[in-house]
Write a structure and sequence with these properties.
Length: 540
């Protein structure tokens, strides 16, 4: 090659030959500005590309199911292993929730004793559905498989709240055990009185999440909220906010820091703060609970109390946030919640909460050639499961890889807290059917957790008969594995019948408070979701 030829565009780029010093300075300034803008645009494009890639690489998973089904508990299991840092940072804040859980259990006992003394009638079978009080529609099930007790259908025999049955119950109630309750119990009640004030204080700090919904709150709400037509794919305006559980926990810390009204003067149980491990001075709830420890233990271990609770079918051990067997430990001034305590603590979810977890590569699963980061980062969405909150779910149905649906299997004889006319199992079936039939979710992988198997085991061992509440169960054995198998088939059948197109699905029997067993389930779930995710990413 000969001499380098001149760039044909050089003529346009070359400064004019008669350029003055001032003009040159101005030109150079303009060129520098143009370069700056061009660099900024490049940076912006690069960031947008990276964000888009990250978004594509992120797996989105939605946790669904009725209230108290175990969604947040499942999420806690994920976070405990795969978002350890934020989990640790939050741990100490759960003490306030556990304190509130303890107080609630004690108040339940006191109120049950009072009802006995007052001779209040009680529902001899409190977990059977009762007769509707108003004209709210019941949910007629097309599928004969869903034959859980529906008060609007004839099941033969007397409805549980029929006058005849109530009269028998009232007679039972009149044969009151109140004679067992002595001045000792009256004294315990008085001495435990300050817990009411602490309950109000903790509720104020933790906000609405700490208050369970009352019966009737869901009047006019169907299985998927009101005024929605998920099956037809109509979308709702997203009238919700993504909020973190941390808001509630943070509130607790902040108001605590602002100084207790009752002025014990110590700092709050802030994560990482020395006071979180229990300052010698403590705070008001801690102080009051500590001073009530002996009385709470005396109440919980009292034989007459146990007899009354049993008669009134108050099974505290099976209720959310049960810590009465751990009083010595959780009421200590230097108490720090363990992983298991946090998992068992009950704080209901409001709105929709978003959590990020990160999986490190596991063997071949993540080396699918899609991209080094594909599938490592997951966004988990936890929602409030009450019928009053299900409207807020719909905007999250877009772009979801998998749904983990929690269906508690122990609840065949229970009713929704927000609407006591609705049997919990029936609600789960209806909700599952709505989710399965949603066109927005047609391609979403469905994972069903048949949850609370531990409680099912206890309930069946106590002699509760499934067929009494689920007539189609017939004469199958009344044991946990037969019941789980039967319910799994029912859920599978609904999925098959109502999914708009064939889809991946996985079914697990779980007790998500068992963190060890759940760790293996989560690994299996993770691998299944990732396999599906990578398959669909390859197809795109
Ligand atoms: N024994 C037992 N308790 C469980 C199980 N799963 C959840 N729980 C308890 O049930 C209570 C409710 O669980 P959550 O995870 O808060 O329920 P949720 O579905 O998030 O409820 P909402 O936030 O109201 O929608 C908690 O106290 C849990 O510890 C289980 O498998 N066995
Ligand atoms: Mg929750």
């Amino acid at each position: 090659m000969g001499a380098v030829e001149e760039d044909p565009f050089a003529i346009f780029l070359r400064p004019p030959s008669n350029e003055s010093v001032g003009e040159r300075a101005e030109r150079l300034a303009q060129e520098a500005e143009a370069k700056k803008i061009s660099d900024q645009i490049d940076e912006q494009l690069k960031a947008e590309r990276a964000a888009l890639k990250k978004q594509k690489d992120t797996v989105r998973v939605l946790l669904l199911g009725q209230s108290e089904s175990g969604k947040s508990t499942t999420l806690k299991n994920f976070r405990m292993h795969y978002a350890r840092e934020s989990w640790e940072a939050e741990r100490a804040s759960w003490r306030a929730v556990i304190q509130l859980n303890v107080i609630r259990s004690i108040i339940t006992i006191v109120e049950t004793l009072q009802a006995e003394v007052d001779g209040e009638p009680y529902d001899a079978a409190p977990n059977t559905p009762s007769t509707p009080k108003s004209g709210i529609p019941s949910f007629a099930l097309e599928n004969p498989a869903h034959d859980v007790y529906n008060p609007n259908r004839s099941h033969g025999g007397l409805p549980p709240n029929s006058p005849a049955v109530l009269s028998v119950n009232n007679n039972l109630a009149r044969s009151s055990l109140s004679s067992l309750l002595t001045s000792k119990h009256e004294l315990l009640k008085v001495r435990l009185g300050p817990l009411r004030r602490v309950e109000a204080d903790l509720q104020r700090r933790l906000g609405a999440a700490s208050i369970e919904e009352h019966d009737g709150a869901a009047a006019g709400h169907g299985p998927l909220g009101v005024d929605i037509d998920v099956a037809n794919g109509k979308k709702l305006r997203p009238e919700f906010s993504v909020r973190r559980l941390n808001d509630a926990l943070q509130n607790s810390r902040q108001s605590h820091r602002g100084g207790s009204q009752h002025g014990h003067g110590s700092g709050p149980p802030t994560p990482g703060d020395a006071s979180s491990s229990g300052s010698p001075l403590g705070d008001e709830p801690t102080e009051v609970l500590s001073s009530c420890l002996d009385d709470m233990k005396a109440l919980w271990s009292d034989d007459a109390v146990r007899v009354v609770l049993k008669k009134r079918k108050v099974r505290l051990e099976e209720t959310a946030g049960f810590f009465l067997d751990d009083l010595d430990r959780v009421v200590r001034r230097d108490y720090e919640p363990t992983d298991d305590d946090v998992v068992r603590a009950r704080l209901r979810t409001l709105a929709v909460q978003e959590y990020r977890v990160r999986f490190e590569p596991t063997g071949s699963i993540l080396s699918g050639g899609i991209g080094a980061n594909a599938g490592k980062e997951w966004l988990l969405y936890d929602v409030g499961g009450s019928r009053t909150m299900r409207n807020a779910w719909i905007p999250f149905f877009d772009n979801i890889q998998a749904i983990i649906f929690l269906a508690p299997v122990s609840c065949f004889d229970e009713r929704l807290s927000e609407d006591s006319r609705v049997n919990r199992l029936e609600d789960s079936f209806l909700l599952w059917r709505s989710i399965c039939s949603s066109k927005l979710l047609a391609r979403t992988c469905m994972i069903l957790f048949l949850n609370k198997c531990d409680l099912l085991r206890k309930k069946l061992k106590a002699g509760v008969l499934v067929k009494k509440y689920l007539p189609s169960y017939g004469d199958r054995p009344n044991d946990p594995s037969s019941v789980v198998k039967y319910l799994r088939e029912k859920f599978k059948e609904i999925l098959r019948q109502h999914s708009p197109e064939p889809r991946s699905s996985y079914f697990y029997a779980t007790s998500v408070v068992d963190t060890k067993a759940t760790a293996s389930t989560i690994k299996a779930v993770r691998d299944s979701i990732l396999k599906d995710y990578l398959k669909s990413a390859e197809l795109v």
